[in-house]
Amino acid sequence: MRNQDRRRGIMTSQIRRSPRWGRLSEFPDELLLKILSFLPSKDVVATSAISKRWKSLWKEVKKFRYDATPSYPQTFQMFALFIRSRSNVESLQLKLNPNNSRQDFKDLVNYAVARSLRELRIEMLYKSFEFPQSLYLYPQLETLILEKLSLVDIPSNVSLIGVKKLHLLSVRFSSDESVTKLLSRCPLLEDLVVRRSTYTNVMVFTIDVPTLKCLSIDNTSGKSRPEGVHGFVINAPSLRCFSIKDTFSNYVRFGEMPELVKASVNIVCDQPIPTERETVQSTSSKM
User: Cα separation of 177 and 204, whole Å?
Assistant: First the structure.
């Protein structure tokens, strides 16, 4: 902790001596808050020592970031208490590791939900993740980004009723059906980003979302193709924007997309292509 305090002191003194400091101070509060939103929360708080203006400016920040690499349990607990002291938390971005307890994590999310959380990003470094109950039937959460984690199935009697934007970045599911279950629990979903990797265990990724308007797929990370049938089934009749980069699938099937206005299809395959795939490629070449 003393080393962290020393680094924060060095950072603020360096900013004061910087020839650009004067220019930065001339920026309006709105722009400064935008800049602060990209910093880890510990660095945001450290700016309070820069000058009288910054002493209270950081308190208006509503986007918070926490990186637990490396991590000390007491540091995470202190961050949770810090979030609890805020009056408004619009965005919470967490990079956690296996040392962070599930109960501490749930407490942190509960604090954020009670403070009007609208965006939640969680990177778990390949640890099992279960949605806190406070997220179920919570209408204000609009953006959910999950990265490098193993997702526990969502219960069948609950929903993520406010989520409009969902990112699944190198996420492991218990089965192919778990993907369909998760998407069906997001009745307002409009924007979906899927990035597969060698960690992703789903063979056929089914995207059956009638409300979906924008879909981006990246399946270019890996060293070798999985055995058997693997790829995507996409049924999104309201889709308007579609992008796919895929060098590993051997099966891709699209449903009708009458609302589509923009598409980028980049699929590479060195194996025999199923009939559905041929239909996909001939359709994409006309757009």
Answer: 9
Residues making up the chain, counted from first to last: 287
- Token reading at 64: 């918070």
Contact (CB, 8 A) for 129 and 102 = no
Residue 264 has pLDDT above 60, yes or no: yes
131 three-state secondary structure: coil
Name which residue leads in pLDDT, 32 or 121: 121
| Higher per-residue pLDDT: 126 or 181 | 181
Q: What pLDDT shows up at residue 12? A: 47
Name the 3-class secondary structure at 228. Answer: coil
Sole residue written with tokens 């980004």: 145
CA distance 132 to 117: 13
Q: How far apart are CA 285 and CA 287, in angstroms?
A: 6
Predicted local confidence at residue 280, as pLDDT: 43
* CB atoms near residue 58 (< 10 Å): 19
CA angle 250, 214, 212 (to 5 degrees): 90
